Amino acid sequence: MKHLLATTSALAVLLGLAAAPAFAEEQTAWRLFVSDHAAPVVHALDMETGKAIETFNVKVPTSLYRSDSGRTVFAVQGKGDTISVLSSGISFGDHGDHGDIKVEAPKLLDVTFEGKKPSHFVDHGGDIALFFDGEGVARIVSETNVLEGKPAVREVATSAPHHGVAVAIGDYALTTEPNFEKPDELPVGIRVTDRSGATVGDVHACPDLHGEAASGNLLAIACAKGLLVVKESGGAPSMEMLPYGERLPAGKSTTLVGGRGLQYFLGNYGPSAVVLIDPKSEDAFRLIELPTRRVHFTVDPVRAKFAYVFTEDGQLHRIDVVAGKIDASLKLTEPYSMDGHWSDPRPRIAVAGSRIVVSDPLKSVLHVVDAESFKRGDDIALEGKPFNLVAVGGSGETH
């Protein structure tokens, strides 16, 4: 009996230990990936300290795109006919009542995608579509497979090389339809194909197609006369044209970003304005005039009601997307004229948690703005011409 009591007591202790929650600490980690306008490098910075973690070499100067999960950053090198992939080193696990964060060293993966003139990158639910203009081909991969070093590629060919884009939605692929009469001009529509490559339905007209973004369960594609709004219906995509409002002046959007937390889209509209787009509203388009020409814009993924626009006079403007107006402005740089070539080095914006970061390529510096107070913080010096910015991070528990 004494032996049984002792065994029972020991088992109770073990069960108690097993039931006790593992010790956890809250951790916040944000990283900024910065490409150089002239040099074939990508810098990884720790935004909690402002210090560089690592510099990665690529083939040619690159544009950067982060995946929706933030686990990967794709370096699209249009002039190098290749796409490199970096692991951000930050990942999250969802445990229902809380999320875990795992922080490791960032690294350049031993994975590349080769092809003529890669351009657009689109992530939809972890399926990443990479479009190669020089071939008119989309290559679709799973982010999970890319991280495992075994990217099984599904190719979707269009009928001709062109400056296009593709989106993977489940078993379907949306690809741009080239302009056959004038192949060097923008696409004229969207074709839907299934996994066998068969076309589903008719081509959806979208003349002068350029610009796409997702917000919540909606995808928007910018056309000459409005936005093609895409929804999933029974697992398949359905589309409806949202014409530009009659109160808008003549013009169109060619770049879109999607709201996070609030469902809306922000687009350019002429050189000196942006437009807020709510596809579910009767008054879907709200134009916001800017003091000078627009350089770059983005939305705030943390503070859902804000978006930011940088203008050529060196000012960063905060937009209240609920009120539909600029509610604060901050002078950050010397003027960056929009005259000249479209690809000249000019500032870009990224939001890294509680910080808004604006690159200043001609001064070799990153300007940091406190997102809560909208006041300047400490600048970060970075050699060369820091240009494209991608922020990855968040908060979670570590065990």
From TrEMBL:
<feature type="signal peptide">
    <location>
        <begin position="1"/>
        <end position="24"/>
    </location>
</feature>
<dbReference type="InterPro" id="IPR011045">
    <property type="entry name" value="N2O_reductase_N"/>
</dbReference>
<dbReference type="InterPro" id="IPR047697">
    <property type="entry name" value="AztD-like"/>
</dbReference>
<keyword id="KW-0732">Signal</keyword>
<protein>
    <submittedName>
        <fullName>Metallochaperone AztD</fullName>
    </submittedName>
</protein>
